[in-house]
UniProtKB/TrEMBL annotation:
<dbReference type="InterPro" id="IPR023210">
    <property type="entry name" value="NADP_OxRdtase_dom"/>
</dbReference>
<dbReference type="Pfam" id="PF00248">
    <property type="entry name" value="Aldo_ket_red"/>
</dbReference>
<feature type="domain" description="NADP-dependent oxidoreductase">
    <location>
        <begin position="7"/>
        <end position="311"/>
    </location>
</feature>
<dbReference type="InterPro" id="IPR050523">
    <property type="entry name" value="AKR_Detox_Biosynth"/>
</dbReference>
<protein>
    <submittedName>
        <fullName>Oxidoreductase</fullName>
    </submittedName>
</protein>
<dbReference type="InterPro" id="IPR036812">
    <property type="entry name" value="NAD(P)_OxRdtase_dom_sf"/>
</dbReference>
<dbReference type="GO" id="GO:0005829">
    <property type="term" value="C:cytosol"/>
</dbReference>
Length: 313
Protein backbone atom coordinates (compact mmCIF):
# COMPACT_ATOMS: atom_id res chain seq x y z
CA UNK A 1 0.00 0.00 0.00
CA UNK A 2 1.08 3.57 -0.70
CA UNK A 3 0.12 5.59 2.35
CA UNK A 4 0.44 9.38 2.08
CA UNK A 5 1.10 11.79 4.92
CA UNK A 6 -1.76 13.96 3.72
CA UNK A 7 -4.05 13.98 0.72
CA UNK A 8 -5.05 17.07 -1.20
CA UNK A 9 -8.81 17.55 -0.96
CA UNK A 10 -10.12 18.67 -4.35
CA UNK A 11 -13.82 18.89 -3.45
CA UNK A 12 -14.17 22.56 -4.43
CA UNK A 13 -11.91 22.51 -7.48
CA UNK A 14 -13.83 23.61 -10.55
CA UNK A 15 -16.67 25.20 -8.58
CA UNK A 16 -16.00 27.51 -5.62
CA UNK A 17 -12.26 27.34 -6.38
CA UNK A 18 -12.03 28.53 -9.97
CA UNK A 19 -10.22 26.76 -12.78
CA UNK A 20 -7.03 28.84 -12.82
CA UNK A 21 -6.60 28.73 -9.04
CA UNK A 22 -7.30 24.99 -8.98
CA UNK A 23 -4.72 24.32 -11.70
CA UNK A 24 -2.13 26.42 -9.86
CA UNK A 25 -2.78 24.54 -6.62
CA UNK A 26 -2.44 21.19 -8.36
CA UNK A 27 0.83 22.36 -9.93
CA UNK A 28 2.13 23.45 -6.54
CA UNK A 29 1.07 20.17 -4.94
CA UNK A 30 2.90 18.12 -7.56
CA UNK A 31 5.99 20.34 -7.45
CA UNK A 32 6.29 19.84 -3.69
CA UNK A 33 6.13 16.07 -4.02
CA UNK A 34 2.48 15.53 -3.15
CA UNK A 35 1.08 12.18 -4.17
CA UNK A 36 -2.62 11.69 -3.38
CA UNK A 37 -5.53 13.80 -4.64
CA UNK A 38 -8.94 13.04 -3.13
CA UNK A 39 -12.20 13.76 -4.93
CA UNK A 40 -15.61 12.18 -5.66
CA UNK A 41 -17.95 11.83 -8.60
CA UNK A 42 -20.51 14.05 -6.83
CA UNK A 43 -18.19 17.01 -6.13
CA UNK A 44 -19.52 19.61 -5.97
CA UNK A 45 -23.16 19.25 -6.98
CA UNK A 46 -24.34 21.74 -4.35
CA UNK A 47 -22.10 24.48 -5.77
CA UNK A 48 -22.97 24.07 -9.45
CA UNK A 49 -26.09 25.37 -11.21
CA UNK A 50 -26.66 21.94 -12.77
CA UNK A 51 -27.32 20.38 -9.38
CA UNK A 52 -25.13 17.38 -10.21
CA UNK A 53 -21.43 16.76 -9.66
CA UNK A 54 -18.42 15.87 -11.76
CA UNK A 55 -16.75 19.27 -11.89
CA UNK A 56 -13.84 18.30 -9.63
CA UNK A 57 -13.03 15.09 -11.51
CA UNK A 58 -13.30 16.95 -14.82
CA UNK A 59 -10.84 19.63 -13.76
CA UNK A 60 -8.38 17.07 -12.38
CA UNK A 61 -8.61 15.19 -15.66
CA UNK A 62 -7.87 18.36 -17.60
CA UNK A 63 -4.84 18.99 -15.39
CA UNK A 64 -3.54 15.42 -15.70
CA UNK A 65 -3.77 15.64 -19.48
CA UNK A 66 -2.09 19.05 -19.68
CA UNK A 67 0.94 18.12 -17.57
CA UNK A 68 3.27 15.61 -19.23
CA UNK A 69 4.26 12.74 -16.95
CA UNK A 70 2.32 13.91 -13.91
CA UNK A 71 -0.08 10.94 -13.93
CA UNK A 72 2.82 8.61 -13.21
CA UNK A 73 3.61 10.59 -10.03
CA UNK A 74 0.09 11.37 -8.80
CA UNK A 75 -2.39 8.95 -7.24
CA UNK A 76 -6.13 9.52 -7.56
CA UNK A 77 -8.72 8.76 -4.89
CA UNK A 78 -12.38 9.13 -5.87
CA UNK A 79 -15.78 7.91 -4.71
CA UNK A 80 -19.15 6.60 -5.83
CA UNK A 81 -22.54 6.58 -4.14
CA UNK A 82 -23.63 10.16 -3.51
CA UNK A 83 -24.07 11.60 -7.00
CA UNK A 84 -27.63 12.97 -7.31
CA UNK A 85 -29.78 11.29 -9.93
CA UNK A 86 -32.13 14.29 -9.89
CA UNK A 87 -31.06 17.88 -9.28
CA UNK A 88 -32.31 19.44 -6.07
CA UNK A 89 -33.42 16.18 -4.48
CA UNK A 90 -30.38 15.01 -2.53
CA UNK A 91 -30.01 12.90 -0.38
CA UNK A 92 -33.07 10.93 -1.47
CA UNK A 93 -31.80 10.97 -5.06
CA UNK A 94 -28.27 9.74 -4.19
CA UNK A 95 -27.24 7.07 -6.68
CA UNK A 96 -26.39 4.43 -4.06
CA UNK A 97 -24.12 1.41 -4.32
CA UNK A 98 -25.88 -1.10 -6.53
CA UNK A 99 -23.78 -3.13 -9.00
CA UNK A 100 -25.30 -1.24 -11.93
CA UNK A 101 -24.38 2.12 -10.40
CA UNK A 102 -20.83 1.06 -9.54
CA UNK A 103 -20.28 -0.48 -12.99
CA UNK A 104 -21.37 2.71 -14.76
CA UNK A 105 -19.95 5.24 -12.29
CA UNK A 106 -16.40 3.91 -12.31
CA UNK A 107 -16.27 4.29 -16.07
CA UNK A 108 -17.79 7.76 -15.90
CA UNK A 109 -15.12 8.78 -13.37
CA UNK A 110 -12.35 7.36 -15.55
CA UNK A 111 -13.71 9.34 -18.50
CA UNK A 112 -13.85 12.62 -16.55
CA UNK A 113 -10.43 12.01 -15.02
CA UNK A 114 -9.01 11.10 -18.45
CA UNK A 115 -7.11 8.17 -17.02
CA UNK A 116 -7.08 4.40 -17.32
CA UNK A 117 -7.12 3.59 -13.62
CA UNK A 118 -8.29 4.85 -10.24
CA UNK A 119 -5.77 4.26 -7.48
CA UNK A 120 -8.27 4.19 -4.59
CA UNK A 121 -12.02 3.84 -5.15
CA UNK A 122 -14.38 4.48 -2.25
CA UNK A 123 -17.95 3.63 -1.38
CA UNK A 124 -18.88 7.21 -0.47
CA UNK A 125 -21.57 6.46 2.11
CA UNK A 126 -23.67 3.54 3.29
CA UNK A 127 -26.79 2.66 1.31
CA UNK A 128 -28.32 -0.20 3.23
CA UNK A 129 -31.09 -0.71 0.68
CA UNK A 130 -28.39 -2.13 -1.59
CA UNK A 131 -27.38 -5.69 -0.56
CA UNK A 132 -23.87 -5.53 0.86
CA UNK A 133 -22.76 -8.77 -0.79
CA UNK A 134 -23.69 -7.36 -4.20
CA UNK A 135 -21.89 -4.09 -3.48
CA UNK A 136 -18.76 -5.99 -2.42
CA UNK A 137 -18.82 -8.12 -5.56
CA UNK A 138 -19.24 -5.06 -7.78
CA UNK A 139 -16.33 -3.26 -6.16
CA UNK A 140 -14.23 -6.40 -6.49
CA UNK A 141 -15.03 -6.50 -10.20
CA UNK A 142 -13.56 -3.02 -10.68
CA UNK A 143 -10.21 -4.36 -9.47
CA UNK A 144 -10.53 -7.60 -11.43
CA UNK A 145 -11.20 -5.62 -14.60
CA UNK A 146 -8.09 -3.48 -14.08
CA UNK A 147 -10.00 -0.23 -13.57
CA UNK A 148 -9.14 0.23 -9.89
CA UNK A 149 -6.09 -0.63 -7.82
CA UNK A 150 -7.45 -0.42 -4.28
CA UNK A 151 -10.80 -0.08 -2.48
CA UNK A 152 -12.10 1.78 0.55
CA UNK A 153 -15.26 2.73 2.44
CA UNK A 154 -16.18 6.28 3.41
CA UNK A 155 -18.79 7.13 6.06
CA UNK A 156 -19.29 3.49 7.04
CA UNK A 157 -19.44 1.94 10.49
CA UNK A 158 -16.53 -0.28 11.49
CA UNK A 159 -18.77 -3.33 11.89
CA UNK A 160 -20.13 -2.92 8.38
CA UNK A 161 -16.65 -2.52 6.93
CA UNK A 162 -15.55 -5.71 8.65
CA UNK A 163 -18.63 -7.55 7.39
CA UNK A 164 -17.85 -6.37 3.87
CA UNK A 165 -14.25 -7.51 4.21
CA UNK A 166 -15.44 -10.95 5.32
CA UNK A 167 -17.79 -11.14 2.33
CA UNK A 168 -14.91 -10.22 0.02
CA UNK A 169 -12.84 -13.06 1.44
CA UNK A 170 -15.74 -15.48 0.95
CA UNK A 171 -16.22 -14.32 -2.63
CA UNK A 172 -12.50 -14.36 -3.41
CA UNK A 173 -12.48 -10.71 -4.49
CA UNK A 174 -10.50 -7.67 -3.40
CA UNK A 175 -11.96 -6.03 -0.30
CA UNK A 176 -11.87 -2.62 1.33
CA UNK A 177 -8.52 -1.67 2.87
CA UNK A 178 -9.18 1.95 3.79
CA UNK A 179 -11.77 3.74 5.90
CA UNK A 180 -12.61 7.45 5.56
CA UNK A 181 -14.46 9.39 8.28
CA UNK A 182 -14.81 12.86 9.76
CA UNK A 183 -12.24 13.53 12.47
CA UNK A 184 -10.17 16.34 13.96
CA UNK A 185 -8.47 17.24 17.23
CA UNK A 186 -11.64 18.57 18.85
CA UNK A 187 -14.77 16.43 18.95
CA UNK A 188 -18.48 17.25 18.96
CA UNK A 189 -20.57 16.63 22.05
CA UNK A 190 -21.56 12.96 22.41
CA UNK A 191 -24.69 12.17 20.37
CA UNK A 192 -24.64 15.62 18.74
CA UNK A 193 -26.01 15.64 15.20
CA UNK A 194 -23.48 16.92 12.68
CA UNK A 195 -25.19 19.55 10.51
CA UNK A 196 -23.58 18.35 7.28
CA UNK A 197 -25.68 15.55 5.83
CA UNK A 198 -24.06 12.15 5.46
CA UNK A 199 -21.01 12.79 7.63
CA UNK A 200 -19.99 9.94 9.93
CA UNK A 201 -17.59 10.64 12.78
CA UNK A 202 -14.57 8.58 13.75
CA UNK A 203 -14.95 7.04 17.20
CA UNK A 204 -12.69 5.34 19.73
CA UNK A 205 -13.87 2.05 18.25
CA UNK A 206 -12.93 3.18 14.75
CA UNK A 207 -9.46 4.22 15.85
CA UNK A 208 -8.95 0.92 17.65
CA UNK A 209 -10.14 -1.00 14.59
CA UNK A 210 -7.75 0.82 12.26
CA UNK A 211 -4.87 0.38 14.70
CA UNK A 212 -5.58 -3.35 15.01
CA UNK A 213 -5.89 -4.14 11.28
CA UNK A 214 -2.51 -3.93 9.56
CA UNK A 215 -4.06 -3.65 6.10
CA UNK A 216 -6.59 -0.90 6.91
CA UNK A 217 -5.64 2.77 6.54
CA UNK A 218 -7.69 5.52 8.16
CA UNK A 219 -8.27 8.71 6.17
CA UNK A 220 -10.11 11.67 7.70
CA UNK A 221 -11.88 14.70 6.28
CA UNK A 222 -12.78 18.04 7.93
CA UNK A 223 -9.45 17.65 9.70
CA UNK A 224 -9.00 21.42 10.10
CA UNK A 225 -12.71 22.28 10.51
CA UNK A 226 -12.68 24.67 7.54
CA UNK A 227 -10.14 26.90 9.26
CA UNK A 228 -12.05 27.27 12.54
CA UNK A 229 -8.89 26.70 14.61
CA UNK A 230 -7.42 29.99 13.42
CA UNK A 231 -10.13 32.09 11.76
CA UNK A 232 -12.40 34.28 13.86
CA UNK A 233 -14.74 34.64 10.88
CA UNK A 234 -15.28 30.86 10.83
CA UNK A 235 -16.25 29.94 14.41
CA UNK A 236 -16.73 26.32 15.36
CA UNK A 237 -20.27 25.01 15.16
CA UNK A 238 -22.14 24.89 18.44
CA UNK A 239 -21.83 21.09 18.58
CA UNK A 240 -18.20 21.69 19.62
CA UNK A 241 -19.22 24.01 22.47
CA UNK A 242 -18.41 21.94 25.55
CA UNK A 243 -15.68 21.81 28.25
CA UNK A 244 -13.65 19.18 26.40
CA UNK A 245 -13.14 21.57 23.50
CA UNK A 246 -12.01 24.33 25.85
CA UNK A 247 -9.35 22.08 27.37
CA UNK A 248 -8.16 20.82 24.02
CA UNK A 249 -7.88 24.29 22.52
CA UNK A 250 -5.83 25.43 25.52
CA UNK A 251 -3.34 22.59 25.06
CA UNK A 252 -3.28 23.18 21.31
CA UNK A 253 -2.31 26.81 21.92
CA UNK A 254 0.45 25.72 24.32
CA UNK A 255 1.96 23.24 21.88
CA UNK A 256 1.70 25.72 19.03
CA UNK A 257 3.66 28.26 21.08
CA UNK A 258 6.27 25.67 22.11
CA UNK A 259 6.90 24.47 18.56
CA UNK A 260 6.51 27.76 16.72
CA UNK A 261 4.05 25.98 14.43
CA UNK A 262 0.54 27.12 13.56
CA UNK A 263 -2.44 25.42 15.25
CA UNK A 264 -3.27 23.81 11.90
CA UNK A 265 0.22 22.34 11.67
CA UNK A 266 0.04 20.98 15.20
CA UNK A 267 -3.33 19.35 14.48
CA UNK A 268 -1.98 17.74 11.30
CA UNK A 269 1.15 16.51 13.10
CA UNK A 270 -1.03 15.09 15.87
CA UNK A 271 -3.18 13.23 13.34
CA UNK A 272 -0.38 11.81 11.21
CA UNK A 273 2.00 10.90 14.02
CA UNK A 274 -0.30 9.00 16.35
CA UNK A 275 -1.63 5.45 16.58
CA UNK A 276 -3.12 4.67 14.20
CA UNK A 277 -1.32 6.91 11.76
CA UNK A 278 -4.04 8.93 10.07
CA UNK A 279 -4.14 10.38 6.57
CA UNK A 280 -5.80 13.82 6.78
CA UNK A 281 -7.48 15.15 3.67
CA UNK A 282 -6.61 18.84 3.48
CA UNK A 283 -8.73 21.14 1.35
CA UNK A 284 -7.11 24.41 0.29
CA UNK A 285 -7.99 27.46 -1.79
CA UNK A 286 -4.62 29.28 -1.59
CA UNK A 287 -1.00 28.26 -2.08
CA UNK A 288 0.03 29.41 1.39
CA UNK A 289 -2.50 26.98 2.89
CA UNK A 290 -0.96 24.19 0.85
CA UNK A 291 2.55 25.16 1.95
CA UNK A 292 1.37 25.19 5.57
CA UNK A 293 0.21 21.59 5.22
CA UNK A 294 3.49 20.44 3.66
CA UNK A 295 5.46 22.13 6.43
CA UNK A 296 3.28 20.38 9.01
CA UNK A 297 4.56 17.04 7.72
CA UNK A 298 8.01 18.00 9.04
CA UNK A 299 6.75 18.67 12.57
CA UNK A 300 7.40 15.97 15.17
CA UNK A 301 5.63 16.28 18.51
CA UNK A 302 7.47 15.15 21.63
CA UNK A 303 6.06 12.35 23.75
CA UNK A 304 5.10 14.90 26.38
CA UNK A 305 3.33 17.13 23.88
CA UNK A 306 1.40 14.22 22.46
CA UNK A 307 0.44 12.99 25.92
CA UNK A 308 -0.86 16.42 26.87
CA UNK A 309 -2.83 16.67 23.64
CA UNK A 310 -4.26 13.18 24.05
CA UNK A 311 -5.25 13.74 27.68
CA UNK A 312 -5.88 17.47 28.23
CA UNK A 313 -6.67 18.54 31.78
Amino acid sequence: MTTPQFALGAMSFGTTVDRDTSMALLDRFAARGGRWIDTANCYSFWADPSGVGGQSETLIGEWLTARDGVRDRILISTKVGQQPTAAGKWPESAEGLSPAVIHAAVRDSLRRLRTDRIDLYWAHAEKRDDPLAETVAAFGATVRDGLVRRLGASNHTAWRVERARALAREQGVTGWTALQLRHSYVHPRPWAVVPEGGHRLATAETLDYAASEDDVDLWVYSSLLSGAYTRADRPMHEIYDHPGTTRRLAVLAEVSAETGATPHQVVLAWLTGGTPGIVPIVGVSREDQLDEAFEAMELRLTEDQRRRMDQPV
